[in-house]
Every structure is written in C-alpha cells, then in structure tokens.
C-alpha cells in the first residue's frame, strides 16, 4: 500500500513524525517557524509544536549550527535547517571542525547526533550565489554521513533513519524536487537509505547519479531505450559512505559508466566515484568511465546560460550513445 | 557553597592557592617536557592566568558543563580531570583523556562534562550555547561556562553566540580571558572597541570587568553570576583582565611586547599576590605553603610517571571512532 | 638545544647568560638562542652548577645537542636534554580497502601495439585463451569490447567440437602446407620386439591407469632423437627457419566424427615416460571433449603422427605449418624379418619422415630416422 504526496509534504510529515516520536527532537533554523520555512517544508509546524521546538533563529549560520551541535552533545536530537547549502559555507567551521571531529578527537567520549538539512542545486535562475551543489564537498569529510534523497519515498524515510544515527548526518534536498509528487509506501522500514538503489534496470550502460539529476537520468534512459540502448540508472542516495558494491555491480553488468553530477568536475564527488570504478572495477570496463558535470563557471542568471551550464537530458543521451558506440 | 559572600578561612585560602599552584607547576613541567620533545605539536601555557579558571571553577557544580580553548590544561586540571590523564594526552598515549588523539589543544573528559579543548578561536562559543539550550529544553538547572580569549571577540561566532544566548535566555557564563594579545596582536590593534565587556551590552547581556589577577575577585564574580544564571535570568558575561607571562606558544620570541611590560604584570602575579596576602592575613603560614608545594610536586611527578608508563594506541585502531562502529 | 616547536630543527646559541662555575636554579634564563622566528631565551629546568659550556657563542647546533654540563641536583640533566626517540613501532599502514585484486595482463599479449581493446575484453580473452588480433571491434574508435570477444569465442561444443570450423582450419593449414612446403619423404622399417617386450614387462607390474601405451614410446624416442637434429625442430616463418631449443611435440589426435587436432606436449624430451603418458592421456581426453586451449595447438615445434592399432601399415604425413617436420608411424604388424640369415616373424613398424626441403636434406633425414630406431632398440633408456 502506498500514498501519493509531494517531496515537501514527505519532509514535513517526516519531521512531524520524528517530533511526535521523541520529545528531544526539535527543528531550528532561519524562518522555519513564523515564515513556515523558506521552501514551506515546516509550514504549520509552529502552531503544532510551539516556538520552543520549531525554533526560528537569527541569520547566524555558524552560531545556530554550532548551537545545534552543542544541543546534540547535551542530549537533544536537533534538526538544523540551513536554508541552502550556499549559506552552509558560513557554518562550515562548526560542521567540519566540531561535528565531524568530536567523536574521534575526544577519544570516543563524545558524539554529535545532529541532523543538518539544507537545500541544494541550481536550475531556478538564482544565479551564482544561490545555485551551488556542495554535497560533494561535505562528502569529503570523515565523520559525517551525507544523504541526498531524490525520491519522495526517500524524502519521507530518510529523516527518521538520520535521527537514529549517533553521528552527524547532512541531508541535501535538491530544491527542484520539493514540488515533485511520488508514492510513499506504508512500510517505510523497507526503504534502505544506506545503499544505492537501481531506479531502472539496464544492460548497456550505468548512469550513476543522485538527487536532482536522478530524474534527468531517468528521462535520458527512456530516450535511450527508444534508440535501442538499455541504460541502468543507479541512485546513490547516500553520498558518504558511498555504496561501492552497488556501483561496481552495476558497472560489472553494463561495463560502461556515465556519472551525472550537478557539482563541478574538478576535485568532485564524480571524480571520486570515477576513481573508485577505476580502482575496483577496471577489468569490468568496456569503455573509459565518463562524467557529466556542471560547467566550471559560476552559475549564470540568464535561463539559456544556466541550462547550458548544467547537465541536461540531451547531454546525457549523447554521452551515453558515444560510450555504447555502434 | 552558594551566595556571593565568600569566607576566606584557612581551608579556602589553602584550596585557592593550591589550585593555582597545581596549574603553575603542571605548566612549568609541560614547558620542560616540550623542550625535551616529550610533548609535541603546539603547547600553550596558562601561566599568569591561573586566577581566572581557579576562581570560576569554584562556582560550578558537578553537572555543569565547561567549554574551553586550546590553552586549557589548567581548566581541565581544575575541573577534575586527573593530571596523569592530561599529561598522558600530551604525550600522545592512549591512557590520555582523549586517547592521545587530541593532544594539548584537545583535552576532553565526559565524566566531568569537560567539552574541550577547541583550537578554533571562537569555535567553542556556539557549542556552549547549544549545551545550555539542551539543558534548558530538558528542564535541567545546569549552566555551561565558556572560556575564550579576547581575540575571539573579533570572530563572528562570538557575536552570533552572545546574541543567541541572550535571545533565548540560556544558562551560559561567558568568561573572556582578556590577556591583551591575540597571539601577538595587541588588543588596540585588533578591536575598535577595546572594552570587551561593553560588547555584551549590545546583546542586553549583564557583564562586568573582573580583575583576573585576583582569584578572590574572580570567585566572587563567578558565584554571583552563576547564581543569577541558575535562577533563570539568562547568560552573564565576565571579562577577566589578566596576563600571559609566557610566550603565546613555545616557539614565540615575543617580538610584540616589551620585557618591562611582562615584568610589571609578573609583579602582580595571581599566585604571588594571593600567597603574600594570605601570609599577611595569617590564614596561611610558610609550613602550609611548603606542604602545598610538596603535594603539588608529587601530583606533577606522578602525572609524568603515568604518562611515561603509558602505551601507544595500536595503529590498527587508526580508523576507530570516526563514526559509530555499527554504521561506519 | 631545546626544541621550541615541531618545526624547529636547529638554533644558533647567540649568548651565554651564565658562565662556567655559576650556580643556576630551575627557571633561570641561561642563554639566548636565535631561531627562524627570532631570539628566544632558554631556561633551565634543574638546580645545580655549570660544569662546562659545551657550545660556544655563535654556533648553530641541531635540536637535542647538549649545550652545557650541569652538576648538582640534576645529574641526569645533560643526557636527558638529548633527544629521546619515541619508540613508535614501525607498524604497517592499514591496507587500503578499496583496491581490488590486481590483475596484470602483459602487453606482450598484443602483437599489434595499436590494438585497442577494453579491459573487460582483455580479461575475457585471457581467461578464454582467445587471440584479440583479428577480432573486429565495435566500440568507440573500433575498440574491441567484451561483446566482440564473446562473439569470437568458439561456441561451447554441443558435440564436443565445431566440426565445420575445424574442417575449415584443417583445409587451410593443409592447403598452405602443400602449396608452400616442398616436402620430401623418407621411410624406414624397424623391429619393435625389444620395445614391446620391455613395455609388456613394465605394464604387467602396474594397475591399468599407470600403464603406458606404445605410442608414448614413439613420441619419447622421436623427441629424444630430434635433439641432435635441430633442423627438424622449429618454425619456418617469414622466409626463414628458427630452430627451437625446446622440443614441444605435437600429437596428432583424431576426433570421433571427423577432423583432427595436434596439440603439443611441452618439453616432451624432458618428461619421463610416465609423465609423458599422463599428459598424452589428458590431451587425448580433452581433444575428444573439445576442451583444449588455443595455445596448445600453436606451440608445437614438430609433430608425431602414430596411427595406432586401428591404423594401416604406413602414412605419408603432411607437415603442419609453420613446422618443418612430421614423423608418421604405422601400426605394428607381424612381418617376415631376417634374423641371423633366418626369416622369422617380428613386430614391425614403418616410420616415415616428411620434412621441409627448404630447411633440411634427405641425408640428415635418414640419420634422424636411424637415431629414432636406435632409441627404440634400447627401450630401457627411454
């Protein structure tokens, strides 16, 4: 059995469920309360839970993210919403120097069970400072778990699992997905966020992706099927730690890999995935792995230029055709 | 002991002097061990500033939390972290209070709610706010004391944290250890408003200036502040004016200050001053002081022996505690 | 020289503030040292008397060097100031967990240096002994991909072997041989009574699996004899003959249903008869099942063709190019034989050498055949 809802509603329902299940859970961030959330995820929750647990913060990303980390150390289960990952740069010190290091640096005495949510991605003509995809950067950091739900079902299921984690978890929500509708199964426990998921089976090429790019890959796979190319679409879901086994199994089957990542190419998550394919899956390959990333440019405002800067369905189809050859 | 009235009887004088001497002698031993390469990395000594942490710690209860900086050996000692575990940590031994993973700048101790050990200037302030938030939301009467230097006042996190703590009426005692230099940059070279305590006023936070070289003044201010905070009146800010007698870290030729200035401050050093006062007042005699010195020397030598006898964490444990073992 | 920072390697002692004979107390400043960061005062951590200043002013010394000798309470001070190595055992770094088992395919597998084949294709080709050369690639820029090698792989035998393909291969090889190689033939008959008796005796003491067939004697005798006749052992390629040091004897094996293959027994001259027999049994079994490797077919340096019990008296074999000789043995037939001027019946085998006249001549061929005969007359030496 399943229900249909939007990604936004799934997130909201997940927050509500978590707050009802555990009084130590609370949400804090900029405009999460009276405004209802920049993306309306927490709309209505202030009335339901009150200002103590739906806590509006000043524009102090480092301060309130650090406070969330401190509150987690102090026994609470905070959900920190950083409006977008672009602003998370202001909180990077707290995330990297405190949250990620604490367990190891304290010899295992302290751990930080904080969940930090943030919107990510481009595609809405918000220009250079509001269009970053920084999940790959955060996935660089040992001590963090980094999630990127792409489906409504994952959006619904991930939060509870993230809150169960005794260590810091970052959830990157591609802002283009909030309006997306999808089915959510009643049995949320069956959704395995720790492992990558094959969203479409195929035999000729693996499209390895996550988050907002998943749906571009799904459209591309459909188009490829029309010209006789069978593309498999692998949704990574968890960006740290990467599900190497799932990546290698898919590549071993199709012998071709195309990584689609909205992040920039240089020193990126896509580079990491490609390295691992070369290290672990070299002898299964029929072609060099390829990447489709954002152009290495601050994301421009004008619509046609922004589109040109981002991976698009047509580009995915072209690249896949090239790799499959014939 | 609560209340702002402080009874300076023999026992309490002995306690205050001994606590300051514990820090002083421990730090002196650290300096020696550093030159012998027993301790490595950065080493920041608290010599000269002992009265601040000694006075503040007198006001804390067992359940209260402490957040400190990278100049925190003294704070850890005074909070109750065993000297041997602190020394072993600086040796890098697994018997250290952070298993040898943190070193001098990252001392942690869960049993005493000692939260480090933060080597990013200003980095500890948001954490203190969060710890206090957690206590408040859980209805606990604990307070969190947060130590930082005056250099942190230039950081955004300082202002963000003061604002949050005041905005949400959180039980935080902010203790600025103003030793006049951020590494080697003098206060008037880094701040437009050199009166640090005045900054708290812009967040409507009660604040006061305390003579950080006078342990009694610090203790009195701390008790008064902690009582107010525990009553639910929100955070308090204490600016303790003090002075670091030693270089910023071991490798520092002190090009930025005059020897005369150091000498002037040394003459009003917290230990020297309190000791002579207690002798004059008849609360302590030379025999007491000799006994204290002896006890402290024993504690320090036992700490060194404990560290020397410590063992190295096996390299096979390298990746332990990056995350919970079940989900790494 | 005390260490004042992890990055301090040495310092210049610029000034002594104490002299020899001075009494010093813990905490005293005794010297000034110049470092990259500037002048730093050096304090003493012991009480005592300065016995000797070991480093003159102005000298640069590395961290850990003794600067002065102090007597008194801290007798051990001098040696203690010297650097003490931290006994960190040289533990092996944790093995990276991301690297797969490393497979290396030597580049020499490709005779064509420009051959473009994917890793998956190469691995499959190696595992299935398939030569990548000649396979048409369908990948980008004509690269050979896994699907191309899979297509080139001989289909798994339904009746053991693809007989059509084999027929084609035999046709090609034999036509080329008759077209290119000027064969000459020499025939000789030998009495194998001694060999037969020796073999019977050998086999009588052994269970059937360990028994040796007569054909093994023929192969061994030929392999041994050919060592002295290198012009019959080797390959004729691109207009010239190269003799082979090793003797890899091809064994012509008939396949039920038609066709034949001549896989090699490597270094047949150096195997004992028992070892040779084991290999022959294995080869014959596998050839009949169709599961021999391509390399076994191409590595022979000469070939032996023994018709066996079901054969006929003699065979004039065709050389398997690029080899230059093949020796055919007919079946053992009881025939009249003159012994001590008497005609008696003896087991006789006719052997025929077919050799490449571009490489050898009949005279040497005759000697070679006689040498084989000599080996068979003394079977115990085989």
Secondary structure topology:
The complex is a heterotrimer of chains A (326), B (328) and C (382).
Chain A: E1 2-6, H1 7-21, E2 25-29, H2 45-49, E3 54-56, H3 61-73, E4 77-84, H4 85-88, H5 92-99, H6 102-105, E5 115-120, H7 135-138, E6 145-147, H8 152-164, E7 169-174, E8 181-185, E9 197-200, E10 205-209, H9 213-226, E11 231-235, E12 238-240, H10 244-254, E13 257-264, H11 269-281, E14 290-294, H12 303-309, H13 313-324
Parallel strand pairs in A: 2-3, 2-4, 4-5, 5-7, 6-7, 10-11, 10-13, 13-14
Antiparallel strand pairs in A: 1-8, 6-12, 9-11
Helix pairs in contact in A: 1-8, 3-5, 9-13, 10-11
Chain B: H1 10-35, H2 50-57, E1 65-68, H3 73-79, H4 83-91, E2 114-117, H5 124-137, E3 144-149, H6 156-167, E4 172-178, E5 181-182, E6 185-186, H7 187-190, H8 196-201, E7 207-211, H9 215-230, E8 236-241, H10 259-267, H11 270-281, H12 286-309
Parallel strand pairs in B: 1-2, 1-3, 3-4, 4-8, 7-8
Antiparallel strand pairs in B: 5-6
Helix pairs in contact in B: 1-2, 1-3, 1-11, 1-12, 2-3, 2-9, 4-12, 5-6
Chain C: E1 10-16, E2 23-24, E3 29-35, E4 38-43, E5 48-53, E6 59-62, E7 68-71, H1 77-81, H2 119-127, H3 146-152, H4 163-180, E8 183-191, H5 193-204, H6 214-226, E9 234-237, E10 240-243, E11 249-251, E12 253-254, E13 260-261, E14 264-265, H7 273-289, H8 294-298, E15 302-306, E16 325-329, E17 333-339, E18 342-356, H9 362-377
Parallel strand pairs in C: 11-15, 15-16
Antiparallel strand pairs in C: 1-3, 1-6, 2-5, 3-4, 5-7, 8-18, 9-10, 11-14, 12-13, 16-18, 17-18
Written account of the structure:
The complex is a heterotrimer of chains A (326), B (328) and C (382). By secondary structure, chain A is an alpha/beta fold. Chain A has helices spanning 7-21, 45-49, 61-73, 85-88, 92-99, 102-105, 135-138, 152-164, 213-226, 244-254, 269-281, 303-309, 313-324, and strands at residues 2-6, 25-29, 54-56, 77-84, 115-120, 145-147, 169-174, 181-185, 197-200, 205-209, 231-235, 238-240, 257-264, 290-294. In chain A, α2 (45-49) links the parallel β2 and β3. Chain A is globular and about 60 Å long. The model of chain A has no long low-confidence stretch (mean pLDDT 96). Chain B is an alpha/beta fold and 328 residues long. Chain B has helices at residues 10-35, 50-57, 73-79, 83-91, 124-137, 156-167, 187-190, 196-201, 215-230, 259-267, 270-281, 286-309, and strands spanning 65-68, 114-117, 144-149, 172-178, 181-182, 185-186, 207-211, 236-241. In chain B, α1 (10-35) packs across α12, α4 crosses α12 (286-309) and α5 (124-137) packs parallel to α6 (156-167). Chain B is globular and about 50 Å long. The termini of chain B are far apart. The mean pLDDT of chain B is 95. The longest helix of chain C is centred in the middle third of the chain and has 18 residues, at 163-180. The two termini of chain C are 81 Å apart. The interface between A and C is medium-sized, with 16 and 17 residues.
């Amino acid at each position: 059995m399943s229900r249909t809802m939007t990604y936004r509603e799934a997130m909201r329902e997940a927050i509500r469920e978590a707050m009802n299940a555990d009084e130590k859970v609370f949400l804090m961030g900029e405009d999460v309360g009276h405004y209802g959330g920049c993306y309306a995820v927490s709309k209505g929750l202030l009335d339901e839970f009150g200002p103590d647990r739906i806590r509006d913060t000043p524009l102090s990303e480092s301060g309130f993210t650090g406070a969330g980390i401190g509150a987690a150390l102090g026994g609470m289960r905070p959900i920190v919403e950083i409006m977008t990952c672009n602003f998370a740069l202001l909180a990077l010190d707290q995330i990297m120097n405190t949250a990620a290091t604490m367990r190891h640096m304290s010899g295992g005495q302290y751990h930080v069970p904080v969940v930090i949510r943030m919107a990510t991605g481009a595609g809405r003509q918000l220009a250079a400072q509001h269009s970053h995809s920084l999940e790959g950067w955060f996935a660089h950091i040992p001590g963090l778990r980094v999630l990127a739900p792409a489906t409504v079902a994952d959006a619904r299921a991930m939060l509870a699992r993230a809150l169960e984690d005794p260590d810091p978890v970052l959830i990157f929500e591609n802002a283009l997905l909030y309006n997306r509708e999808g089915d959510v199964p009643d049995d949320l426990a069956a959704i395995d966020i720790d492992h990558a998921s094959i969203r479409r089976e195929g035999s000729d090429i693996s499209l390895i992706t996550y988050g907002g790019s998943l749906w571009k890959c799904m459209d591309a796979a459909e188009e490829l099927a029309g010209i006789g190319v069978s593309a498999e679409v692998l949704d990574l879901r968890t960006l740290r730690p990467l599900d190497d086994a799932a990546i290698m199994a898919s590549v071993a089957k199709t012998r071709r890999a195309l990584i689609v990542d909205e992040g920039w190419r240089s020193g990126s998550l896509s580079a990491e995935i490609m390295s691992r394919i070369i290290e672990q899956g070299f002898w299964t390959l029929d072609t060099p792995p390829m990447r489709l990333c954002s152009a290495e440019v601050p994301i421009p405002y004008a619509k046609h230029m922004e589109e040109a800067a981002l991976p698009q369905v047509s580009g995915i189809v072209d690249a896949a055709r090239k790799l499959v050859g014939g | 002991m609560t209340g702002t009235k402080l009874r300076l009887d023999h026992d309490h004088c002995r306690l205050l002097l001994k606590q300051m001497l514990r820090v002083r002698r421990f730090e002196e031993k650290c300096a020696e061990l550093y030159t012998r390469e027993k301790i490595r990395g950065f080493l920041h000594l608290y010599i000269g500033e002992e009265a601040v942490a000694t006075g503040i710690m007198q006001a804390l209860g067992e359940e209260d939390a402490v957040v400190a900086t990278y100049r925190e050996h003294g704070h850890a000692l005074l909070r109750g972290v065993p000297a041997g575990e602190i020394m072993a940590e600086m040796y890098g031994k697994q018997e250290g209070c952070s298993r040898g993973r943190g070193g001098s700048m990252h001392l942690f101790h869960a049993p005493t709610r000692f939260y480090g050990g933060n080597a990013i200037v200003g980095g500890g302030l948001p954490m203190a706010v969060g710890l206090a938030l957690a206590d408040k939301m859980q209805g606990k009467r604990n307070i969190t004391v947060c130590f930082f230097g005056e250099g942190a006042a230039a950081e955004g996190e300082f202002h963000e944290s003061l604002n949050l703590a005041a905005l949400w009426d959180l039980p935080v005692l902010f203790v600025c250890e103003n030793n006049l230099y951020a590494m080697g940059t003098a206060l008037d070279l880094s701040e437009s408003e050199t009166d640090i305590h005045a900054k708290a006023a812009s967040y409507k936070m009660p604040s006061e200036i305390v003579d950080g070289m006078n342990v009694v003044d610090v203790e009195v201010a701390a008790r008064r502040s902690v009582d107010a905070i525990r009553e639910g009146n929100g955070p308090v800010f204490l600016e303790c004016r003090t002075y670091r007698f030693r270089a910023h870290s071991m490798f520092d030729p002190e090009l930025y200050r005059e020897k005369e200035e150091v000498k002037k401050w040394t003459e009003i050093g917290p230990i020297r001053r309190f000791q002579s006062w207690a002798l004059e007042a008849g609360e302590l005699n030379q025999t007491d002081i000799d006994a204290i010195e002896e006890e402290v020397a024993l504690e320090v030598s036992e700490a060194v022996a404990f560290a020397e006898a410590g063992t190295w964490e096996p390299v096979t444990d390298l990746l332990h505690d990056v995350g919970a073992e079940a989900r790494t | 020289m005390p260490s004042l920072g992890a990055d301090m390697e040495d310092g210049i002692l610029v000034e002594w503030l104490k002299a020899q004979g001075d009494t010093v107390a813990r905490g005293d400043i005794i010297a000034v040292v110049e470092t990259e960061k500037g002048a730093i005062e050096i304090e003493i951590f012991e009480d005592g008397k300065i016995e000797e200043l070991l480093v003159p002013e102005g000298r640069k010394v590395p961290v850990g060097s003794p600067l002065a000798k102090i007597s008194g309470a801290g007798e051990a001070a001098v040696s203690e100031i010297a650097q003490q190595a931290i006994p960190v055992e040289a533990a092996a770094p944790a093995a990276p967990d991301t690297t797969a088992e490393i497979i290396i395919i030597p580049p020499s597998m490709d005779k064509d240096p420009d051959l473009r084949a994917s890793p998956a294709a190469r691995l499959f080709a190696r595992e299935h002994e398939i030569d990548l050369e000649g396979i048409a690639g369908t990948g980008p820029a004509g690269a050979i991909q896994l699907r191309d090698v899979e297509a080139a792989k001989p289909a798994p035998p339904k009746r053991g072997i693809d007989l059509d393909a084999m027929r084609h291969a035999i046709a090609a090889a034999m036509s080329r041989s008759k077209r290119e190689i000027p064969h000459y033939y020499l025939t000789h008959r030998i009495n194998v009574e001694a060999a037969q008796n020796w073999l019977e005796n050998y086999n009588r003491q052994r269970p059937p699996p360990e028994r040796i067939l007569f054909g093994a004697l023929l192969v061994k005798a030929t392999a041994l004899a050919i060592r002295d006749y290198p012009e019959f052992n080797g390959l004729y390629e691109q207009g010239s003959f190269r003799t082979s040091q090793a003797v890899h004897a091809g064994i012509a094996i008939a396949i039920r249903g038609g066709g034949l293959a001549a896989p090699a027994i490597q270094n047949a001259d150096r195997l004992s008869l028992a070892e040779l027999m084991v290999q022959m049994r294995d080869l014959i079994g596998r050839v009949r099942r169709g599961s021999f490797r391509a390399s076994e077919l191409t590595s022979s340096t000469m070939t032996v063709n023994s018709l066996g019990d079901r054969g006929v008296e003699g065979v004039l074999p065709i050389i398997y190019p690029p080899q230059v000789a093949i020796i055919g043995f007919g079946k053992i037939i009881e025939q009249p034989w003159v012994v001590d001027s008497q005609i008696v019946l003896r087991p006789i085998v006719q052997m025929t050498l077919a050799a490449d006249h571009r490489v050898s001549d009949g005279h040497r061929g005759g000697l070679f055949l006689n040498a084989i005969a000599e080996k068979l007359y003394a079977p115990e030496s085989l």
